[in-house]
Amino acid sequence: xxxxxxxxxxxxxxxxxxxxxxxxxxxxxxxxxxxxxxxxxxxxxxxxxxxxxxxxxxxxxxxxxxxxxxxxxxxxxxxxxxxxxxxxxxxxxxxxxxxxxxxxxxxxxxxxxxxxxxxxxxxxxxxxxxxxxxxxxxxxxxxxxxxxxxxxxxxxxxxxxxxxxxxxxxxxxxxxxxxxxxxxxxxxxxxxxxxxxxxxxxxxxxxxxxxxxxxxxxxxxxxxxxxxxxxxxxxxxxxxxxxxxxxxxxxxxxxxxxxxxxxxxxxxxxxxxxxxxxxxxxxxxxxxxxxxxx
Amino acid sequence: xxxxxxxxxxxxxxxxxxxxxxxxxxxxxxxxxxxxxxxxxxxxxxxxxxxxxxxxxxxxxxxxxxxxxxxxxxxxxxxxxxxxxxxxxxxxxxxxxxxxxxxxxxxxxxxxxxxxxxxxxxxxxxxxxxxxxxxxxxxxxxxxxxxxxxxxxxxxxxxxxxxxxxxxxxxxxxxxxxxxxxxxxxxxxxxxxxxxxxxxxxxxxxxxxxxxxxxxxxxxxxxxxxxxxxxxxxxxxxxxxx
Lengths: 294, 242
Fold this sequence. Notes:
The structure holds two protein chains of two kinds.
Chain A: H1 4-32, H2 39-56, H3 61-90, H4 95-118, E1 132-135, E2 138-141, H5 142-164, H6 166-176, H7 178-183, H8 188-213, H9 222-235, H10 240-261, H11 266-280
Antiparallel strand pairs in A: 1-2
Chain B: E1 10-19, E2 22-32, E3 37-41, H1 48-55, E4 63-68, E5 71-72, H2 78-84, E6 86-89, H3 101-108, H4 115-128, H5 130-134, H6 145-157, E7 163-167, H7 175-190, E8 195-199, H8 202-205, E9 211-216, E10 219-224, H9 226-231, H10 233-240
Parallel strand pairs in B: 3-8, 3-9, 6-7, 7-8
Antiparallel strand pairs in B: 1-2, 1-4, 4-5, 9-10
Helix pairs in contact in B: 3-6
C-alpha cells in the first residue's frame, strides 16, 4: 500500500494552513498575552471578503486576496482599539481572562453578521486552481501546491519582517519585555496595534487558502482556530518557530492516523498528543516554564 | 529637604509615588546639574528603584513634579519620557533575552532614524565595552550576569539623552565584575555624562559621586558629599547596617 504520497500531500497542505493560522494566533498570544478567540472568525471574514471581491465585485485575484488581508487587518485593529486596549487599561491583572471572554463574544457577533449577510449555505470559493502535477507516483493537486507555497511565503515574509526591520524588532522586544521596550521609547500600545493588524492580515489570507480547499461557511475558521490553539499549546505559548514546526509535524501525524485508522481518529490523536506533551513538558515542546518576579 | 531647581538638568520636587494604596516615596526632592553624578543610597526596599521608575514614567507620579531641562515630564508615559532624553538602565536583567547582543544595542537606538549616527554610537559602545563586540551575535539569555549588565549600560548609551538613571549596577555581581562596571561608570562621568545612580553601598561611589542622598522609608534623611557620609558612622550603622 502506497501511503507516503497521500499522507505527505494531505499533511503538508493542512500543516501549511495550521502553521499560518497558528502564526497569527501565537504572535498575538506571545506579544500581548492575549488568546484571541476571534482569530478563527478573522479567517472566515477573509474568506468571505475574497469571495465578495472576486465573484460579486469582479476584482482580479491578487486584489481579492489583498482585500481579504485588508479586512482581516482592519477587524484586528478594531478588536485592539475597541476591546483589548480598554480592557488592558481598566484591569491589567485580569486581562488574560477577560480578553478571552470578550473576544469569544466578538467571534459570535461577527459569525452571526456573516450568517445574516451571506446565509448559512456553503459557498464555493472562486479563487481556486484546477488540475494536478504528477511527480512519479505522487499526484499533487495544483491547489495544494499553491496553498503550501503561499503559506510558506507568508511565513517567510513575516519572519523576515520580525527579524530584519525596526518595526519587527520592536514587536519582538515588546513581546519579551514591555517595560524595557517602553524605557527605550517604544510606544508599546502602537506596537500591540501593529501585532493585531499583522495577525488579522495573516488570518484573512489564511481564510482564503482554507476556503479554497473546503467551502465558505460562517464557521469556516472554527476548525483552524481549534487546531492553531492545539499547536500553540504543544509548541509552547508564543514560540513562533516552534509553532510552525509543530504545525507541520502534527498535521503529518494527523494525516497518517486518518489514512491508517480513519478520518474520525485524526483529531483524537492530536488531543492525545496534547495531553502527553502537557504531562511531560508543561511549558510545551519549545517553551520554557515562566517565572514571574513580583 | 527640597533643593532649588535653578539651571538643573533634572529636577525632582516633592515626589510622592507608590504601589496600590501604599506610598513608597513620601516627598522626595533632588536636582542634577549637567555633568554631575548624584547617588542615592539606602537599604533595600525603601524606594530607590521606585524613585527611578517614577522619574522614567514607569510609575505614575501621585504628587510633586519631575522636570528635565526645564520641561515637565511627570505624567508622560515612559516611552515619551525616553523620547525627551531620560535614559533608564534598569535594575537586574531587563534585557530582551531572546535577542542577540547587537539587537539589544540597536533597540537602544529605536528613536534614532539617522543610521550613520547609530553606527557611530555603536562603534563608541564597542570601544568602551569591547566584550560586547566579541559577544555581538550571542543571545542575551546566554550571557553572564556582568555581561548582561554591560549590555544594559551599552543599550542606554545607544540612546540619545541628557540624563542617565542607573539602578544598582553592582547587584548580584562578583567583586571583580563590579570593579569593571564602576570603571565604565567613572569613564562615563569623565566624559561629561549626567548620571543619577542608585546604589546600596556608599563606599563604591565615594570616588565618583559629586553628591549623595541617603534614602530611608521613602524620604531623604541625609544629603551631602560622599566622603562626609563615610565618616558618619552612626548614619552608616543606622541606615546601611555598617
